[in-house]
Every structure is written in structure tokens, then in C-alpha cells.
Specification:
29% of the residues lie in helices and 23% in strands. It is an alpha+beta fold. The chain folds into two domains: 10-227, Periplasmic binding protein-like II (D-Maltodextrin-Binding Protein, domain 2, 3-Layer(aba) Sandwich), CATH 3.40.190; 271-499, Dipeptide-binding Protein, Domain 3 (Dipeptide-binding Protein, domain 3). Strands 1, 8, 9, 10, 11, 12, 13, 14, 15, 16 and 17 form an eleven-stranded mixed β-sheet that branches. A four-stranded antiparallel β-sheet has the order 4-5-7-6, with helices on one face. A two-stranded antiparallel ribbon has the order 2-3. It is globular and about 70 Å long. The two termini are 45 Å apart.
């Protein structure tokens, strides 16, 4: 089937530019990254989810100022039983093509998120099935009580069932291959903005939806998002007035931006932790000079890699303070985090050399090392620095860097021996991280980003207990136990929690969210 691209001709764009709706308050912003798809269940990453949220809506969503769960396409919900939650759907809502939003769409969308090719299975964790009660009511039937169900559902956006069926998009696009469905390049949501144009790696244009059911707090009527990989180019565009905001200014430019008379910088701590994962499954690592065995299976080797990384130096020199060195895989805002699990193993190259010698690698070894080059703050520079740190203990890391649209499918195909990942926690609950990153790969979201295929029986037990534990004190203890077990077994190599500054014109008003998402409903341009 030939896929229709969402593009507008120059003539149509010129007409839009002259229309009163678009003239009012355009908002032009940029970051280093590009999204990989417009299919709302295909790839789960923060930048993409935030852009999708302009167009597609969930039944519930976080309030950007309080981070409490607000009604969206559901007006209310109640617990029928500990394993049955009933949602009353908002009436009178229409998709951008004019079709009404009904219970059939909600059942379809939540079921679609549970399908095999979906990357959103952590958000449907614990859901058994979705049942239509009537045209404006659905029941979510759980396998067991789930205390974080509502927080999970903030990321489960609604798609029109008839539109998906008509356009061969019933199943989500599998991000691991190049096959496309219609939903990959086209969008039809209920949200405050419509997608008017997407030219990958060039620009994305949104227009205010005049038929939106909600009330806009901000005054933006058009959004133009431009992915700009080069730090210098992004900042030059902001300083010249071409852009209203840059989501990810480089650390080295912050002093200049803070001192600019026309700009301001808004700082905030993100609920995202940066770490390295390691292949702990293969019996032999591709491209390594160690034959017949996998050094990364040895706890001593993983500790050696960990203790050879000077995280404080990375935060100070490469991040310019835009990070907090950590010893765990979640940030302080996340339930289960404690000061104890936050503590890192000490930086000690001498200890690393002794551990490698004990493991049988006194001269080190070669290993594949993959990182993105346009996703996290100075990601490529961090990986270059770590490569040099590992070289001091004899580890010859063969670094390769890729843009995020090709990097994520690659690591999801298990094609990297050591890889960088940044993990935000939309539920603000450590189950989301433990289940995705450390639970053995299985069904229902288990291990969906456990790309090193770490396996620990106690971890699997703890994670499965957490899923249905309703006693909050017991649950918190289990969350912390899981994080500590991850530390003790070095399931990953933790680096730092990101601190995110947004740079913008002084006339721009935004709400800085811990998930680094720009809520366009509240943006004001003066």
C-alpha cells in the first residue's frame, strides 16, 4: 500500500500563514531530537510522547502544575471492585476528522496498546481486558489490584477505531523494522492541536483545533517544531529570534543565554536517570576479542566498568552541573528512591583493575559500545569520556554513535553489547523502571527495555509482588528492595539524574514539567 505523507504544498502553507487563526500566536521551538513515528503505540520515548500529546489525548492526564491526575477523555472513574475500574467517557468529543469519540474507540485504543507490536505494554501492566458497558462507559478489568493504574493511563492515548481499520493501522507499527502503516505518518486525534505537516528531520507543524472540547489556558494557535542536531545552530536560531524556545540548550551556552537581555532560562530537575545497559545473555559478545565467553555476565567485570567511571567529573566538566551523580536507576521524585540506594560505588580505577584481574581479564578486553548522539544532554561527549576512562583499565570500548531514530530500534533488536539509555518515570513509581529494565523479558511489559536481558529470580519475584501490592508501606519496602537488588547485582551502570534548563524569549511563559514535556495548552507568547 502506498503511504500518504502528511505534507502541505507551499501554496497551502502560504494560505495558512495569512489566515487569522494562524496569525495570532505561533510558537516556534526546537530540540536536538526527531521522533520516529506518529503511531501512538509504536515507540515509547519522552520527546515523542510529548509531541503526540498535542494531537492525541488519554482518558486521564497529569496536571502540569500539580502533577495530579486530571480527567481528560474520561470525566470520572470509580472502583467497582479491587479488580474492576469503571470510566465514564466525555460526551460530545470529536476526532479531527469529525468522527465522535465513543467507548468503541477507548476499548480499541487500550487493546491496541496491549498488542504484540506495541511499545506501551508497561502502561497496560496488570490489565486483563477492556469491556464496553455502553457508548460512554468502559470497564478496565485487572488481573490483580493495581495501585498505579491511573498514572499508567496518562500515557495511553486514544485513536479512532474506524479510522485505524479503514487505513490498515489496527496493529501498531513495529519499530524494529521498516514496515509502515498509515498511522506512522498521519494523525487523527481529539487533542487541542491538529498535525498539519511532518517532514522528518526538517519540521513539524501543528494548528489549533477550533473544535476542541477543552479550554486553552495559553494563547498558542500554531506550533512549529524543528529538530536541530547542532547545538550551535539551535542557539544561534534562538539568539537571532528565529526560535521562541530551545528545549535542550547546551551546558556551555547557558551563561551567555542567562546574560542575554532578550532571553531567560527556566531550570528544573527531570525525573530521568541516565545509565548504561549491558548484554548479559549472549555466551559470546559480537565483535569482542574474548571468544567463547561473555565477560559482561561476570559481576566483577560489571563492577569494574562501574568503578572506572568518574561520574562527578562527567557532571562537572561535561554537563556543567546539569546532573546529579547517582547509584541507582531512578530519580529522587520516584517512589522507592532512598538516600541509601542513591549512593554510588566509589570511583576507583585501581579497584577496577583488580576486579578485572580476578575475573580473568588482567589486560582488559574489547567490547562494542553504542550511544545516541542527539537524545540526552551531551550524550555523545559523555560516551567519549567514558571510553577514555575505560581505556585506563584496559577496556577497549569500540564506540559508535547514532541519531535516536535509528539508535532505539537498533538497541531494541539487541544489537549492542553496552548501550546508553535515559529512563524517565511517567508514573513516578519505581515499578515502571524495575518492570521494564530489570524484570526478565516476558509478557505484559515485563522486560520490554531489559535490552541486556539481565535475569534474577529474586528480582522477578519482587517485581511481581509490587504489581498487585496495595499496602503502601509494604509496597514502598518492595520498591526499595528491588532498587537495592539492582545496585547489588549491577544490573546497569548508573550515571546521573538530568537537570534540564529550557531557554526562551522573555515573553514566553511555560510550565516546566519534571518529565521535560512542553504542555502547549498552557504556553503563552507575549
Amino acid at each position: 500500500m502506498k503511504i500518504k505523507r502528511v505534507m502541505l504544498s507551499a501554496t497551502v502553507l502560504a494560505v495558512l500563514a495569512m489566515s487569522p487563526m494562524v496569525q495570532a500566536k505561533p510558537f516556534k521551538w526546537a530540540s536536538q531530537g526527531e521522533i520516529s513515528t506518529w503511531d501512538i503505540h509504536s515507540q515509547n520515548n519522552a520527546l515523542q510522547n510529548g509531541l503526540h500529546a498535542n494531537v492525541y489525548e488519554a482518558l486521564v492526564y497529569y496536571n502540569s502544575k500539580t502533577f495530579q491526575v486530571d480527567p481528560m477523555l474520561a470525566t470520572s472513574w470509580r472502583e467497582v471492585s479491587p479488580t474492576q475500574m469503571r470510566f465514564s467517557l466525555r460526551k460530545g468529543v470529536k476526532f479531527h476528522d469529525g468522527a465522535p469519540f465513543t467507548a468503541d474507540d477507548a476499548v480499541f485504543s487500550l487493546s491496541r496498546a496491549m498488542s504484540k507490536s506495541s511499545n506501551f505494554t508497561p502502561y497496560v501492566q496488570g490489565i486483563d481486558r477492556i469491556v464496553k458497558v455502553d457508548d460512554s462507559t468502559i470497564d478496565v478489568i485487572l488481573k490483580a489490584p493495581n495501585p498505579v493504574l491511573l498514572r499508567q493511563m496518562t500515557e495511553l492515548r486514544m485513536m479512532n477505531k474506524a479510522w485505524a481499520e479503514k487505513n490498515n493501522s489496527v496493529e501498531p507499527k513495529d519499530i524494529r523494522n521498516k514496515d509502515e502503516n498509515f498511522a506512522h505518518r498521519n494523525a487523527n486525534g481529539t487533542g487541542p492541536f491538529t498535525l498539519r505537516q511532518w517532514v522528518p528531520d526538517q519540521r513539524m507543524v501543528f494548528a489549533k483545533n477550533p473544535a476542541w472540547w477543552g479550554t486553552m489556558e495559553g494563547n498558542v494557535t500554531e506550533i512549529i517544531y524543528t529538530p536541530i542536531k547542532s547545538d550551535a545552530t539551535r542557539i544561534a536560531a534562538l539568539l537571532s529570534g528565529e526560535l521562541d524556545m530551545v528545549l535542550d540548550p547546551s551546558p556551555q551556552d547557558l551563561t551567555r543565554l542567562r546574560n542575554s537581555p532578550t532571553l531567560k532560562v527556566v531550570d528544573g530537575v527531570e525525573n530521568r536517570t541516565i545509565f548504561f545497559g549491558m548484554d548479559q545473555l549472549r555466551d559470546e559478545l559480537p565483535g569482542s576479542d574474548v571468544k567463547g565467553k561473555n565477560p559482561l555476565k561476570d559481576l566483577r567485570v560489571r563492577k569494574a566498568l562501574y568503578q572506572a567511571i568518574d561520574s562527578d567529573a562527567i557532571v562537572k566538566s561535561i554537563l556543567r552541573g546539569l546532573g546529579q551523580a547517582t547509584g541507582t536507576i531512578v530519580a529522587p521524585q520516584v517512589a522507592g528512591w532512598t538516600e541509601k540506594v542513591h549512593q554510588r560505588l566509589p570511583y576507583s580505577p585501581d579497584t577496577s583493575r583488580k576486579l578485572l584481574a580476578e575475573a580473568g581479564y588482567p589486560n582488559g578486553f574489547e567490547v562494542d559500545f553504542a550511544c545516541p548522539n542527539n537524545r540526552y544532554i551531551n550524550d555523545e561527549e559523555i560516551c567519549q569520556a567514558v571510553t577514555a576512562m575505560w581505556a585506563r583499565i584496559g577496556i577497549k570500548a569500540k564506540l559508535r554513535t547514532l541519531p535516536l531514530v535509528t539508535y532505539f530500534p537498533m538497541i531494541q533488536r539487541y544489537e549492542a553489547s553496552i548501550y546508553m539509555l535515559g529512563w524517565g518515570v511517567p508514573t513516578f513509581d519505581a515499578l515502571y523502571s524495575l518492570q521494564s529494565l530489570t524484570r526478565s523479558v516476558g509478557a505484559g511489559g515485563d522486560g520490554n527495555y531489559n535490552l541486556g536481558r539481565y535475569k534474577n529470580e529474586r528480582m522477578d519475584y519482587v517485581v511481581d509482588r509490587i504489581k498487585s501490592e496495595t499496602d503502601q508501606q509494604v509496597r514502598n519496602r518492595l520498591l526499595t528492595e528491588g532498587l537495592q537488588l539492582s545496585n547489588d547485582t549491577v544490573s546497569h551502570l548508573p550515571l546521573h539524574n538530568q537537570v534540564i534548563p529550557w531557554a526562551m524569549k522573555k515573553g514566553v511563559e511555560v510550565v516546566h514539567r519534571a518529565d521535560n514535556r512542553v504542555d502547549m495548552r498552557v504556553v503563552k507568547v507575549n
